[in-house]
């Protein structure tokens, strides 16, 4: 991984869409079913919309039926986690290890081999298809 990114809030606001800014910088949540990435089936890599750090491969994605892109694991070192106590029960929240952008929460109802569901806001991701120029 490259060095951590630390930008002032005003710079994040200028470089991200309004919805991506709310999710990545203020831990918002997009409306379920609103992301076109829910239906993405091509091979490729999902990267952070804030800093382009690779986070997931398409092989890690599954249809959770929740309305958010879901993955059963992550690329090594992609995220840092913390406990989120804002709901009735504590949850595990994850943020991009490079830029600190909020992506979603981890649940214990995913498929084998991990049993985990990384429930990700689609607006916090960009998809790079395998056949795209580098």
Structural class: alpha+beta
Shape: globular
Q: CA-to-CA gap between the ends?
A: 18 Å
Show unreliable segments: none
Percentage of β-strand residues: 25-35%
Cross-sheet strand order for the largest sheet: 3-4-8-7-6-5
Mean pLDDT: 93
Question: Into which percent range does the helicity of residues fall?
Answer: 10-25%
Number of strands: 9
SSE run: HHEEEEEEEEE
Could you tell me the radius of gyration in angstroms? 14 Å
Query: Oligomer, anyone?
Result: single chain
The profile of the biggest β sheet is: 6 strands, antiparallel
Helix count, DSSP H or I runs of 4 or more residues: 2
Summarize the structure.
By secondary structure, the protein is an alpha+beta fold. It has helices at 9-15, 18-26, and strands spanning 44-48, 54-57, 61-62, 70-71, 79-84, 91-96, 102-107, 117-120, 125-129. The mean pLDDT is 93.
Give an account of the 3D structure.
The protein is of the alpha+beta class. Helix content is 12%, strand content 30%. It has 2 helices and 9 strands, in the order ααβββββββββ. The protein has helices at 9-15, 18-26; strands spanning 44-48, 54-57, 61-62, 70-71, 79-84, 91-96, 102-107, 117-120, 125-129. The strands form 2 sheets. Strands 3-4-8-7-6-5 form a 6-stranded antiparallel sheet. The chain has a 3-stranded antiparallel sheet with strand order 2-1-9, with no helix packed on it. It is globular and about 40 Å long. It starts with 8 loop residues before the first helix and ends in a 5-residue tail after the last strand. 28% of the residues are buried. The mean pLDDT is 93.
């Amino acid at each position: 991984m490259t060095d951590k990114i630390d930008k002032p809030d005003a710079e994040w606001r200028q470089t991200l869409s309004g919805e991506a800014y709310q999710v990545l910088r203020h831990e918002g949540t997009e409306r379920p079913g609103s992301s076109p990435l829910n239906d993405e089936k091509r091979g490729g890599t999902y990267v952070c919309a804030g800093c382009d750090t690779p986070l997931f491969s398409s092989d890690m994605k599954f249809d959770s039926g929740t309305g958010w892109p879901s993955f059963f694991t992550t690329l090594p070192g992609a995220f840092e986690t913390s406990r989120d106590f804002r709901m009735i029960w504590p949850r595990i929240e994850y943020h991009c290890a490079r830029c600190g952008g909020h992506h979603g929460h981890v649940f214990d109802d995913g498929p084998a081999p991990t049993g985990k569901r990384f429930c990700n806001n689609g607006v916090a991701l960009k998809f790079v298809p395998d056949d795209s120029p580098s």
